[in-house]
Amino acid sequence: VGVAALVCLVTGMAISWSAGIVWAAALLGLEHVWGLLLVQSALAGWTPIVGAGLLLMTELAYWSLELRTPIRDDPAVHRQRAAAVGGLAAAGGVLASVPLLAAEVPLPGSPVLTMVGALAAVALLAGLVALAPRSGAGSAR
Amino acid sequence: VTTYASPKLGAYASLAGLGLLGALLVGRPEPAALAAPFALACVVGLTLARRPRFEFSIALDRARALEGEEVFLDVEIVAHTPIAWLQIHMPLPAGLEVGPEAPVLGLRLAAGERSRLSIPIRCRRWGAHRLGQAWVRTHDALGFFFTEGRHGTAGPLRVYPRPELLRSLLRPTETQVFAGNQRSRRRGEGIEFADVRPFGPGDRLRRVNWRLTTRLGALYVNDQHPERNADVVLLLDAFSDVSSRTLELAVRAVATLADHYLRQRDRVGLLSFGGTLRWLLAATGTRQAYRIVDALLETQIFLSYAWKGVELIPPRTLPPQALVVAVSPLLDKRTIQALFDLRARGFELAVVEVSPVPFLASSKHDVAQLGFRLWKLRREVLRLRFRRLGVPVGVWTAGEPLAAVVEEVQAFRRSAHLARV
Question: What pTM did the predictor assign?
Answer without folding.
Answer: 0.68
